[in-house]
Amino acid sequence: MANLFDLNDRLFRELDRLENAEGEELESEIGRAKAIGDMASRIIDNASVTLRAAQLQQQAMDDTAARVVVPKLLMTADAPTIAERDEAL
Question: For the chain, what is the domain count?
Fold first, then answer.
């Protein structure tokens, strides 16, 4: 399993197995489904944390870029200053 699409497929396959199981096989599938569900929750939580971290990083970069003042000494002659850039927006 390499991504959330694969996880989704695996969860639906397990649901199919649960629907088709009977007797002792059903008991076994219930245990298996619980284990898969627990792991799926952890994978989804991890993906959520990763997504939130990327969003916070982008937000921090956007906020920082808006406040950075580049000294004229470091700018090329034709590059706009922060103030000129902001006025153009």
Answer: 1
